[in-house]
Amino acid sequence: MDSAYLLVIDDSPDHAQVINSFLRNAGVAVRVVSASGTDELEGVLNDKSPFLILIGTHLPATINVGQIMQMADRHSIPVALQLAPGSTANIETVIATHPVLVINAEENDQLMQVVKRYMSGGKSAREYDQLSHKLAELSDRYDLLLDSARDSIAYIHEGLHIYANRAYLDLLQVESLNDIAGLSLLDLITEEGGQDIKTLLRNMNQGVFSDKTLAVNINISANKKLKADLAFSAARFNGEQCIQMVVREQDAKLLLQEELDRLRKTDHLTQMINRQTFAAKLAAIIEEDKHDDDRRAVLYIETDGIDKIQKTQGMGGMDTCILDLSNIITACIETTDIPARFSDNGFAVLISRNEQSALKVAGDAILENYANHIIDLGDQTLTASCSIGMATIGSFTSSAEEVIEHAKIAFKEAAQTGNKLVRFKPALTTVSSGEADREWVERIRYALNNHDFYTVQQSIVDLEGENEGLFENRTYMREESGDIPASEFMLAAERNDLGGTIDRHVIPQLMIAIAGTGDKHIITLSGNSILDISFANWFQNMMKETEVESSQLILQVSAMVAESNLKATRRLIDELQNLGCGFVLSEFDNDRQTLQMLEHLPVGMIKLRPGLAKGLSSSPANQEVIRAVVRAIGAQKITIIADEVQDASDLAVLWQSGVRLVTGDFLNEAPQVVGQ
Predict the structure, then answer these.
(1) pLDDT digits 0-9 by tens, 260-288
(2) How far apart are CA 387 and CA 367, in angstroms?
(3) 448 with 543, same domain?
(4) What's 533's domain CATH number?
(5) 310 and 175, same structural domain?
(6) Alpha-carbon distance 171 to 152, whole Å?
(7) Which of 148, 152, 235, 477 could form a disulfide with 168 if both were Cys (CB 3.0 to 4.6 A apart)?
(8) DSSP-based three-state secondary structure for 78
(9) What band does 607 get if pLDDT is binned at 50, 70 and 90?
(10) pLDDT of 70-86, one tens digit each?
């Protein structure tokens, strides 16, 4: 709160103190100051701005009443005069020429009332001054904001310019407001947009406002026209009703859209493209190069031991490691290569060269440079290494998901020892080359013709004992040398559009077998079926023919397939959920992209990625991944399934983590054949 000052002028220095004590004791919050000469008086008037000057009964010899009155008039401060009873010394003249309040020096109550009245008036005056000052500041600030705004802004009154900010003046290529003051807005607009402007201005002047944006051409000069969008709104300028006009160049809007698109496709930390953008680019290149062998390759890279780094250094330390690795990757590859932030700790790089030496140089350079790099964490430093998996692209490659999966398989082998590059080889999976694909196609077609596909059910155990009669079904192909699981042939089948055919072969068998049992069965769908717009209708017809209940059927889609075909997956889920079927998303992990899919896919279950629960009790890293998934799902009504549970200790960890559905050889009797 501002202090209220009372100025007392008296020859006795004790007089001001006496008045101060009296007023304070009476509860009047006032500060009393004194002056004994003209210089001191001027200083107090300037510094303290007292609400009242009180002249005591004894003036100092260095100042007279006339001087006091002149200075009070100059500062617009009222004056009160204390007189002893019967004393009029040299006062009549002053009172006759100046408005002075006379107070009986012996009447303290009168003094108190005068002080209270003038103090209140002074407070109001000060508040008025403060408000006026703030208003002026706000006005100046508003003018400054307008002038610094990136948008071009002008104020129009009766069709004429009355104000324009700096951006608007620059747009019109003029120096100052004087160059356009009084200029009609219509003079700037080409004939095509003139009538629309006239109509809008007329309506707004009549109080009819519209949020309509007008697209016009503005005449900048005789040889230059500018395409722009004009947005109008009611405003006031210098107390006058007017129209505010905001001009946005259409080229600038296009640039803004381009920037938004770039941000949508870019990882904010590394400034590399993100997972979705990389997958789209990779898919286009695979389609482009499908008739050529080994033209390009994909590297999948992760920092070794990132979980430990995060625990000891926090998220900031982890981000620094990731950023440093991204910079090293960029420095080691060619400008024609395409790097991406693929996951929280993972990078993918599309290498544009086919020479083995170039691929090895890229991998070895990244490994060596990162291992020798000092990571600066401010008050401490550390070193780290990375592991790299590599997979080539050729005529045998059917999809982006496939080549990425191959690179990840190779990466997992490299990560076992760390600081290593491993190239994907046929030995790592059954399917790997065009020759193998052709062999698989022949075997699959033979099995279809001879009805050699069947499903095996494995029970899923509910640790809370509620979901009895829940089974997962896995497809096998019967051959003389031994039955083969779908994991070995399904990639080749999908690459050659046979995955959907297999689904349509085994699903009816399963429906017939489980109809009327009340058991619920999880059925894995191929990517071919997900993309087949006729599949939902076929599936519904099969349900009617076999008389199976929709509540018995839970369809499983892998996260990798769903991410690459999000719209098709959502369409299929919506169609079959309307029939009453359930859905489970498999190969689930705690990376950001997988978790985000839950915002788009209304699934009731998720199944953790293979191997995550295997040997869980001795893997703190996998335990943290599972806990992270449980935390991320939170209150969502989604049930988690853990696969490949090996022993009771793994069960205990899963139970403590909040996972209720588990499966694995440890918990099951011998699998049972469902469809023949």
Answers:
(1) 666 677 888 888 998 888 988 888 888 77
(2) 7
(3) yes
(4) 3.20.20.450
(5) no
(6) 7
(7) 152
(8) coil
(9) very high
(10) 888 887 788 887 877 65
Q: How confident is the model at residue 560 (pLDDT cuts 50, 70, 90)?
A: confident
Give the Cα separation of 61 and 538 in Å (integer).
115
Q: Which of 275, 302, 263, 550 is nearest to 420 (CA)?
A: 302
Q: Which helix (H) or strand (E) holds 541?
A: helix 535-546
* 343: Cβ contacts below 8 Å, ≥ 6 apart: 275, 591, 592, 593
Q: Same structural domain for residues 395 and 305?
A: yes
> SS3 helix, strand, coil % of the chain, rounded to 5?
45, 25, 30
Crossing angle for the helix pair 499-514 and 434-449, to the nearest 10 degrees: 40
Q: Is residue 140 part of a domain?
A: no
Residues facing residue 184 across a β-bridge: 160
Can you tell me the distance from the alpha carbon of 362 to that of 334, in angstroms, rounded to the nearest whole number?
9
Per-residue confidence (pLDDT) for residue 428, from 0 to 100: 40
pLDDT of residue 504: 95
Q: How far apart are CA 209 and CA 233, in angstroms?
A: 7
Range of the domain at 15: 5-128
End-to-end, the C-alpha distance of the chain in Å comes to 91
Task: Label residues 170-185 b or e (16+ Cβ within 10 Å = b).
Answer: ebbeeeebeebeebeb
CATH classification at residue 26: 3.40.50.2300
Q: Of the residues 364, 394, 428, which one is the last residue of a structural domain?
A: 428
Highest mean pLDDT among 9-23, 99-113, 211-225, 485-499: 485-499
| pLDDT tens-place string over residues 388-397 | 998 877 656 6
- What is the length of the chain? 676
Cβ–Cβ < 8 Å for 373, 328: yes
Strands 213-221 and 224-237: antiparallel
Residues 6+ apart with CB under 8 A from 155: 161, 162, 163, 164, 235, 237, 242, 243, 244, 245
Q: Do residue 417 and residue 440 come from a single domain? A: no
Q: Rounded to whole angstroms, how far apart are CA atoms 318 and 290? A: 38
Residues 540 and 567 occupy one common structural domain: yes
**Do the beta carbons of residue 536 and residue 563 sit within 8 Å?**
no
Distance between CA atoms of 485 and 456, rounded to whole angstroms? 10
474 shares a domain with 445 = yes
Q: How many domains does the chain have?
A: 4
Task: Please list the residues that pair with 556 across neighbouring strands.
Answer: 524, 584
Please tell me the distance from the alpha carbon of residue 300 to that of residue 346, in angstroms, as a whole number. Answer: 7
Ranking 153-167, 205-219, 542-556 by mean pLDDT, the lowest is 205-219
Q: Residue 263: its pLDDT value, please? A: 64
Go through 467-503 and write b for each residue having 16 or more CB atoms within 10 A of its CB, e for each that does not.
eeebbbbbbbbeeeeeebebeebbbbbbbbebbbbbb
In SS3 terms, 458-486 reads as EECEECCCCCCCEEEEEEEECCCCCCEEH
| Structure tokens given for 459 | 């029970």
CA distance 623 to 645: 13
Which is it for the CA torsion 266, 268, 271, 276, positive or negative? negative
Phi, psi of 646 (to 5 degrees): -100, -35
Tell me whether residue 286 is in a domain.
Answer: yes
- The predicted-structure confidence for 411-438, as pLDDT tens digits, reads as follows 988 888 888 888 776 444 444 456 567 7
Co-location of 119 and 177 in the same domain: no
Q: Is 476 in the same domain as 618?
A: yes
d(CA 510, CA 495): 24
Give the pLDDT of residue 95: 57
Q: Has residue 143 been placed in a domain?
A: no
Residue identified by tokens 């803004």 is 256
End position of a domain, from candidates 204, 234, 254: 254
